[in-house]
Every structure is written in structure tokens, then in C-alpha cells.
Amino acid sequence: MERRLAAVLAFDMEGYSRLMGADERGTLAAFRRHCNDIFNPRAAQYHGRIVKFTGDGALIEFASVVDSVCFAVEMQCALQAENSVIAPESRLCYRIGINTGDIMVDDGDIYGDGVNVAARLQEHADPGGISLSETAFNQIRGKLDLSFDYYGKRQVKNIGEPVAIYKVRLDDKAQALLTPLVRKAPWAYPGRLRWYAVAAAAVLIAGAALIWMRPWEPASLAPERFAYPLPDKPSIAVLPFINVSNDTEQDHLATGLTDDLITELSKVSGLFVIARHSVFALRTTSVSVQDVAAELGVHFVLEGSLQRTESKLRINVNLIDALTGLSLWAERYDREYSDIFAVQDDVISKIISALAIKLTKGERDQLARIPTDNLEAYDYYLRAEKEGFLYSDVDTYRRALSFYQKAIDLDPDFAEAHAGIARIAVDVWRNDYNLIWSAAVARKIAYDAAGQALKLDSGNARAHTVLALLQLVDGRREEATDSATRAITVQPNDSEAFGNFALILAQTGQREQAIGEVDKAMRLDPAPPMSFRLLAGITLYLSRENDRAVPLLEAARDGLPNAEPAREYLAAAYAHRDDEQHASQEAAKLLELFPDSNLTYYGYLYDYWREEDRNYHLEGLRRAGITDWPFGFEGKEADQIAGDELRALVGGTTWSGRHKNGTEFMQYFDNAGHTAYRSANTNVTGMVEVDANRICEKFEGYFLDRMTCGYVYRNTTDEARDKDYVHVSPQALKFFSVTPQ
């Protein structure tokens, strides 16, 4: 976990509950406007990073305490001017606390006393005021022409020592510091035509008539205003629900509600639904509904908030026609927490009704299904889903697995939780993450969990996708294609299902169709996670679309710098584009991260590929600079051990030696083809056989349970001169001597 010094600014809205009770919709709209017009642009102007919005406030990190105070002064003065013409009971006032100190950074969020003190300081600020800790005050003193009042030392919650507090006067000196607002252009994909506003004419024309007739036909709005063409059916983005509970412990509930609505709406073939990652990617930008719709290329947007107090739940939902800015339907639900599934059902049915969607019988049955009757199990499931699936992040996998298992312990019939375990297990198996399970165990868990999920819910798309990936690696290509097809049939808006379907098509030689399915997946998730960009890049690479594959693989490499496949496929793609310089650089970095990478290893790893595709990939890696054997070893034919002499080395003997990387090992062989390998970190048993001049080994649970073969040479190298032999295999380069048992 990274640690660093930073200036931390925290603010919240004074009287939030009162304002929400009086005018919930107006309060939320004003807060969003403040985010869009003040908080976001001013934070960018003063180089602040908005860590998160908290429903009625925010947490922002600055590298400079001067910048943090300038931001605070700009913010409060702007709001002061706005409130001067608003009735006192309707004003939105914020309290700001600023502290400097050591913080810990984990997955974009920040923690530690440096953060806690800032959060507590805001509680001691006046409405519309700014409070500083003594450490922040000492760093700002003499650098800005501002006036301060000493507030004294105060005991704050959960902080051991009293904190000295200073308050900033918002007087003429503060006004003199104000600067014109400098807005940065919103980010966009290459080639996007930015959409700054919906013209007044479009509002008038697209008003009442289109809402009540065919609202998904945007005849009055020029298509070029959107980042993507609007689909030929109603399209919707479900924005992340805002947790307004003043309790971050409920964040996962708001996230889970968003996820569930996306998942359920995605089952409707008559809708086009944007995937979760793309909507969550816009969570901290606080742009307008129209901007979101333009960014994602959708006609309708669903937004809402959630507040939980013990067993009570308040959910506000608003379905907006982004072309007109008008609300098609809005509702407030005051229910018991136990009614959350009933609320979800009602929201979905109201959306379907508002957009005049016709459901098939299968869709009606799927939407009527309740995932679990156990709310505690559901809570653990939501926590697991919030963890997400970060490529090769073992710690994330472990946390998610723990939550899924707790959900299953509470409700063994919870199909989605079984499917979640299956999804992680198949990644562990395919990528040989032995830190969690051995390959054999992961494969069995994936099959068992996916099978159990489908037994409980035959329409579980994630389980069908897992089954498809297992069948693909097992060489059952037709079955894999069938399973992947079922996944996209039952979940026609699932970008992950489409992405994996595209990969299976590419690996079964159906390249043109694979490209089309990648395009569908990317349209459903226009701002996908890095792991999905990697998947799409690999699929396009296998489809020989390297000009499109390379930018995706480059993004995956930058976002997942230690992920082996990102470097591996990018090196090969560069080589096939005749970009020798970049191919060589990527291969060098691959070998720096994974020094024993070699073509023989990849040949075994991808033995389930079609021979044409496997040779294409190995040739690309060879051209990039990857060698046949680990560390570029090339044995001399005159030194090679074969025949009876080779058999004698693995019959009733013990090898004692060390790997190229220095790891000491012992390996025992009996006379019946059994072997046991031991090192400081590994203790495994397996089978061994001699095939002509090769030693072939299989260790259960390792390297996808493959039997892999290598060679033994007399050690005539300049390395490890105290050892008599060299054993080169796809997995390792070892130097050893032999002693009889």
C-alpha cells in the first residue's frame, strides 16, 4: 500500500437531512450542479484529485496545501454569491476541513489519520466556512494573503490528541484571491464529436410528442452530438445510486442496487443497457445527465439515491429522457430493508412500462426470480461484487471469494454467489495462479460452482460463460461455442459475455464474427476496465486486426503493468506489424518481469489453440526476441544425455542443485516413475517418464496438469561449475548433480 504526504480537504453539506426532507429532488439537483459548475472545475484548476463524493460532500487530495486553501476559498466565495439571492432556508452551505499529513493510498481511495483529521475538522467549521489544522496553517502562513482566527484546541472524534484549529476569514482579502474559472474540456475517445448542450429547439421538438409516441427515435437530435450512434431500440444508462446515509458502510448497498438494476435490465432483449464499469467510470465526474447520455450514446438515464437507517430504506429514482431533460417517471420508496427486491422489481417494471418494452415469457420469468430470501447473504454477495474482478489481483480475488462463500453458507441455493466463485476459479485456473489454488483444484471448483449455479438457475449468464471457457481450454470447441451463445442469449446486454463469446469465436477460426462481437461488447461498455481491454485486444490480435488490437493492448499494459499477457500479446502484435523496435522493447520488459518466459512454455500453455493460431503467436514472439528455452539456453548436441544414460538419471536417484535464479532444490526419483520436488517454497509430487532423449514430467495441480518435456545436458557452461548437469524444461533452467538413493 502506497504512503505519501498530502493535503487532504473534506467537506459536507450543512443541514443535509433537513434539506432533503424539504425538497429532495431540488437538493440533489443543486448538489449535482455544484459538482459540475464549482467542485470539479475548481479541483482541476488547483490540481486536486477528487477521491470520492460521499452523497452530501467530498474528499479531495492535493499535493500542495496552498492549492487546497485556494480551492476552498474559491468554492466558498462562489457559494456565498449564489446564496445571497436564495432564501435562507433553501441555501446549500458546506463546511470544509483541511489537514496535511501522511496518508495511505489503496485502489484510488485514501486512509489514515491525515484523512480522519480533515474529516473531523469540517465538523468544527461554520456553515460556509473553512477550518485548518495547525500543520496546514503552519504551511500556509505567509504564503497567501489571508486572515485567520485561532479557534483553540479541540478534542475530535477518534483522534487521541486535541487538534489545534484555525479558521479562514472570508473577507476582502479572500475576495482578492479569486480567479476566473478555467474549465478543461471533457475527456473523450479519439474521434468523438463533443456535445456541449442540447439546443433549445431540440427540447421543444422532442418534448411531449416523442415521449408518448416512440421515445427511442431521436429524430429531432443530430446524431453527431453523441459519441456513438443511438441504438435502434430504447437505450439506457443506470447511473451509480448515491448513498445519502452519511454512513460509508452503506456504499456497497448503493453500488449493489445499481449493479442489480443493470443486471436485471440487461436480461431484456428489447433494451440496450450500458455496462456497469462505464457508468461507474463517470461516478466522480458529476457531469449533467445530458453529458452522460452523450458520452455513452444512450437516450435515457436512470439516476437515484439510497438512504438506510437501521431497518428502514428510502430510495429515490428518476428516469430521464436525456434528449429533452424531462423526467419520464420518478418515485420515492420508503420501505423496510427486507423489501429491497420488491423495490427493484417495481423500478424495472416502471422503466419497461415507460419505454413501452414488450417482454418475452422467458424474460418475464427471469425478472420475476428473486436471487435469495436471505438478506444477510445478499449483503455479502454485494460486497463480493463490489470487489470486482481485477486481473491478476490475488488479494482482490481472496476477499471476493470470502464474501461469496459467506453468502453461500447463509443460502446454499444462491445461484449468483456460486457463479461468482466459478468466475474467479476459471481465471485462477487459466492463468495458473497457484497462490490461491492449484490448477487442478481451481478447475474442479470452476466446473462444480458453474454447474451448481446452472442447476439453481439455468439462465445464469456468468455460469454459462465460465463453462464455455472451461470447455474451450479442454478442447471441446463446439460445446464452448454453444455455452457462450447461451450466455449472450439469456443476458443480451452483458458485455463480458459478448467479450468471451468473441474470444471463443476467434480461437475457433471465426474471425469476422469475432470482430463483430468485440464491437458489440465495446459498445455496451465504452469505458471498459483494463482486464476487458486486454480481452478485446487479444481477440482482435487473434483475428489478425493488429492495428485495432495494439491500442487496447497498450492501454492494458499501462493499466496492468505487471500482467504477463499484456506484455506478451503486445510484443507479438508489434512484431506482426513489423514494428521491431517496440516489439523488442516489450519482449525485453516481459523477460525482465518473467525471466524464464520462452516459446516452448507458450507452446504448451496454448496447446488447445488451433495450430494455425498457435504458430502465428509463437512466430510473433520469436520475432520480438523470445527464445525457445528459458534464459535463451541452447544446449550442444554433443553434451546431450539420452537413452539408457538418461534413464539412469531418473531411476532411484536424487538431484541436488539450484535454479538459474538461485533457488536451491532437491528432486527424488524412484524406479516406478514417481518423483518428488522440494524447494524452500514448493513441495510437490508427480510422474516422470523418458521419451527417447527427453525427460517428461507432470506435477498434479501445476501448469494446467500438462505433461511437459525437456532435455538434460552435461554442464559445460561457465555457470554453476560445481554441478554436473543442466536440465532445461518449459518451466525452468536447473543445474544439478546426482547421488544414488
Number of helices: 28
Q: Could you describe the largest sheet, including whether it forms a barrel?
A: 8 strands, mixed
How many distinct folded domains?
A: 4
CATH topology of the largest domain: Alpha-Beta Plaits
The low-confidence runs, each spanning 5 or more residues with pLDDT under 50, are 183-225
Radius of gyration: 30 Å
**CATH homology superfamily of the largest domain:** Nucleotide cyclase, GGDEF domain
Q: What would you call the structural class?
A: alpha+beta
Shape: globular
Q: Summarize model confidence as the mean pLDDT.
A: 85
CATH class of the largest domain: Alpha Beta
Task: Write a structural description.
- The protein is built from 28 helices and 22 strands.
- With 741 residues, it is an alpha+beta fold.
- The protein has 4 domains: 2-176, Alpha-Beta Plaits; 200-368, ABC-type transport auxiliary lipoprotein component (Rossmann fold, 3-Layer(aba) Sandwich); 508-627, Tetratricopeptide repeat domain (Serine Threonine Protein Phosphatase 5, Tetratricopeptide repeat, Alpha Horseshoe), CATH 1.25.40; 631-740, Lipocalin (Beta Barrel).
- β12 (300-309) and β13 (312-321) form a beta hairpin.
- α18 packs parallel to α20.
- The protein starts with a strand and ends with a strand.
- 44% of the residues are buried.
- Residues 183-225 have low confidence and may be disordered.
